[in-house]
Amino acid sequence: MRVAVTGATGFVGRHLCRRIVECGGRVRALVRPQSDRRVLDGCPVDFAVADLVTGSGIAGAVSDADVVMHLAAAVRAGSDAGFRLANAVATGVLAGMLATLGTPPRLVVCSSLAAAGPVLGQGRARCEEDPPCPVSWYGASKLAGEREARRFADQVPTVIVRPPIVYGSGDVAFVPRLAATARSRVAVRPGPPGGVYSVLYVDDLCDGLIAAGLQGRTAGPDEPHSGVYHLCDGVEYTLADLVRTAGAVLGCGRPMVLPVPSAVVRAAGVMSEAVGRLRGGVPVFNRDKAREAVAGSWTASADRAYRDFGFRARVGLEDGLREAFKEMLHG
Predict the structure, then answer these.
(1) Phi and psi dihedrals of 45, rounded to 5?
(2) What are the NAD-dependent epimerase/dehydratase domain coordinates in residue numbering (predicted)?
């Protein structure tokens, strides 16, 4: 199997490239000129420079691919327009270029549960048939990216995967924050009480993406729920579950969990972003993340993925965090 991967040097991308090679596949990594290729040292991949906004270099990079895994995305941006350029416009350009090929490869779009939105008063995990209602710029841009890909679905066989919180070694967002919270022995629970979350270990996501690319049902251009798969490890976690498991793995004991009103969380997001801008960037916690934090529960059902291609997560939270924290534990 010949696989082209966008976002190959990112957190999930580097794990996916290695997993494809382990499975006997060949990888071509689509990168920007400034991408740090060293993160894939030791992994036998070919590199191709491509621009997902202008379309430059895409056709040559994917011309012999059986599957294109589209992981490139912006998870932080200073505006709605910034998210849409990276997450929606770029996806449309990629899908449109694939549609011009004589025999287009299968396209797997790695979207996000943020595109579906939180659970809002339903009392159950989100299913693919539920109407999407993103609450953040990021989520809205990922949903727009899905719709851009779907525009070409009558020409390009397309599968859309929506992972929840993804964690593992090399993660620079969720894992460091969770470790810092566990070590501080105090966790802040934002928004309304009773919130629960779905998570997924990065290697399980990679296996799910590969299975979706090989066996997933493809999307229809006029069928908004077709070809979409939610993935998760099948367990719903409270914030207390997450930080206490992290504390146990790190040997920090059981942290306290303190509720914080939604208004305070939103204000903290504004302040954090303002400070970040003064320092020349967008911080991990900002206005957009604050909107997601106070929105309620973020859980998904992976039943459709199990029915269609037998997806089951293999790594539980404690084992996954132990692997993700390995450098901290032995550093």
Answers:
(1) -120, 155
(2) 3-215
Q: What is the pTM of this model?
A: 0.96
**Residue 11, exposed/middle/buried by CB under 10 A (0-12, 13-18, 19+)?**
buried
Domains identified in the chain and CATH numbers = 2-167+199-232+299-314 (3.40.50.720), 174-194+237-293 (no CATH)
In angstroms, how far is CA 323 from the centroid of its own chain?
19
List 257's β-bridge partners, or say none: 187
pLDDT, tens digit (0-9, with 9 covering 90-100), for 100-154: 999 999 999 999 999 999 997 666 899 999 999 999 999 999 999 999 999 999 9
CA nearest 1: which of 148, 209, 166?
209
Contacts of 268 (CB under 8 A, 6+ apart): 285, 290
What is the CA angle 179-181-185, rounded to 5?
A: 115
Please list, in sequence order, all residues whose beta carbon lies within 8 angstroms of the beta carbon of residue 188, skipping any fewer than 6 positions away: 181, 257, 258, 260
Is a pLDDT exceeding 80 seen at residue 330?
no
Three-state secondary structure of 39-67: HHCCCCEEEEECCCCCCCCHHHHHCCCCE
Q: Which residues are paired to 30 by β-bridges?
A: 6, 48
Query: How many other C-beta atoms lie within 10 A of the C-beta of residue 178?
Result: 25
